[in-house]
Design a protein that fits this description.
elongated; Jelly Rolls; seven-stranded antiparallel β-sheet; 476 residues; 13 helices; 2 domains; Spore Coat Polysaccharide Biosynthesis Protein SpsA, Chain A; 26% strand; alpha+beta
């Protein structure tokens, strides 16, 4: 009894407790065996609560209690050793509310936005429910283990918004999380350990970038006396429908094409696109990132240079012979993209968006392209540019032999006083294909911004940049 009292005390203090070696290895083995069966069944019945990673592995399965009514998981969920602790903490008899699987696969397991469970559940009395998290594998920060804001359950329900993340429809905004000013805690769990957490403790997790899977079984419990705030729950369900509708639309594969502009001539560096960096021509690095991007259906290289076209074909891209009139020093990228797009549309129908690529920005991981395209559709944009945030505005211009500043240098403003601005980096642009042909401009309509860091914004304009890129590329 004393141990239970102690556990309850810590639960009320921190918002969670850890039960070490709570489950035997044989119990965990039986759970894992049933998880495999549930995965097969969920795919077969097209479970709407099934969510995948980008490489098509199962990441989460919600509400599995609707599809199973017996077996090891149900047996464990209703076992006395669990119910005794749950009932003691809730100070009431309890029953299972929901059962979920969080199966973060190695390297691609998705992150879970920070949230509070009771924003989903909407119980009038937050003391009448809890979640129990069973570690079916070792779990830590390294493989996307759960993270808690200690004692955050005492702050009440925070404002949430739609996350549009597969498997987790709500999130607490970053600004609110910063205001909490509480310590974050990442429990290191071993197979068989168990977490019990409060319905209003703030928690979430990072993506699994490790080489180890992270398996978690979550069982939600509610008091038999628990009552739901119907008004709030109705509002939540309305937001949930929006979330599901967005994810269903995302499942309909968009036809996004990448057009890489790689002409033969160049003023700064002779034959720049063929210049070898780490034994590979400069244009190769852009081709590579586009081919590896999941959201891009096909990659096209537009060039007036036979060597570039031959090389691009070797790397398994589609090629377009660009006329000289669109390849000069004063020819615009719009003219070249337009010429290419008209040609591609004669071969392919129903092109949704074009990703306009410039090879002079070679540090462009595939995930950046994927995330930018997702943002393009999520925010219903017409066009999008990439760039980086800048907080200084101290710009000088030469005029009639004198230098003039765009600010009062006698009363130099503090850096913090400057308004945040966005510097276009030219790495790539995304635009609606049909509207682009009409507007003849890369940016139009509802324009969006996708932020990149300084390294990803790196551009090659001279030989010094080539040398610097040769050193940077080793890390990508």
């Amino acid at each position: 009894m004393f141990e239970l009292q102690n556990k309850k005390k810590n639960f009320n203090k921190d918002g969670f407790i850890i039960l070490r070696n709570f489950f035997l290895k044989n119990e965990i083995k039986s759970i894992i065996k049933e998880i495999k069966k549930i995965k097969i069944k969920s795919i077969k019945i097209k479970n709407p609560h099934l969510h995948y990673t980008e490489d098509k592995k199962i990441n989460t399965i919600h509400n599995i209690n609707k599809y199973i009514n017996s077996g090891p998981i149900i047996k464990i969920a209703k076992s006395k050793k669990i119910l005794n602790i749950v009932n003691y903490i809730l100070n009431s008899k309890s029953k299972v509310r929901n059962i979920e699987l969080f199966l973060k696969p190695k390297r691609t397991g998705l992150s879970t936005p920070y949230h509070q469970d009771n924003f989903y559940w909407n119980f009038l009395d937050k003391r009448k429910a809890l979640n129990l998290w069973i570690a079916c594998s070792d779990s830590s920060y390294k493989n996307g283990g759960v993270c808690y804001y200690k004692s955050s359950h005492k702050r009440g329900l925070l404002k949430h918004s739609i996350s549009y993340a597969p498997g987790s429809s709500q999130k607490i905004d970053t600004k609110q999380l910063k205001k909490i000013k509480l310590k974050r805690f990442y429990p290191n769990l071993k197979l068989g350990d168990c977490l019990i957490h409060h319905p209003e403790v703030v928690h979430g997790s990072e993506s699994n970038k490790s080489n180890k899977d992270r398996l978690g079984l979550v069982i939600g419990y509610k008091s038999t006396k628990a009552k739901v705030n119907k008004k709030k729950f109705t509002k939540y369900e309305k937001n949930l429908k929006k979330h599901i509708s967005f994810l269903q639309k995302q499942k309909i594969k968009k036809n996004n094409i990448a057009i890489i502009l790689a002409r033969g001539g160049s003023k700064g560096i002779k034959n720049k696109n063929l210049y070898k960096v780490n034994k590979m021509p400069l244009v190769y690095w852009s081709i590579k990132s586009c081919l590896k991007a999941n959201e891009i259906s096909s990659v096209w290289v537009s060039s007036d240079d036979k060597k570039i076209l031959k090389l691009s074909k070797k790397y398994k891209t589609n090629i377009i012979r660009r006329p000289k009139k669109f390849s000069g020093d004063y020819s615009s990228s719009e003219e070249a993209w337009r010429h290419a797009l008209i040609y591609i549309k004669s071969k392919i129908k129903n092109i949704d968006a074009v990703v306009g690529i410039q090879p002079t920005s070679p540090i462009r991981p595939p995930k950046i392209l994927d995330d930018a395209l997702k943002k393009f559709y999520r925010e219903k944009l017409d066009s999008l540019f990439t760039g980086e945030k800048i907080s200084h505005n101290f710009v000088w211009q030469k005029s009639h032999g004198n230098y003039r500043a765009n600010y009062n240098y006698k009363k130099r403003p503090m850096r913090q006083e400057n308004k945040e601005k966005y510097l276009e980096n030219g790495s790539f642009y995304i635009f609606n294909s049909e509207k682009f042909l009409k507007k003849k401009c890369r940016l139009f309509g509802k324009i969006g911004y996708f932020g990149m860091n300084k390294i990803n914004s790196f551009q090659i304009d001279d030989y010094h940049n080539i040398e610097l890129f040769s050193n940077l590329v080793r890390y990508f």
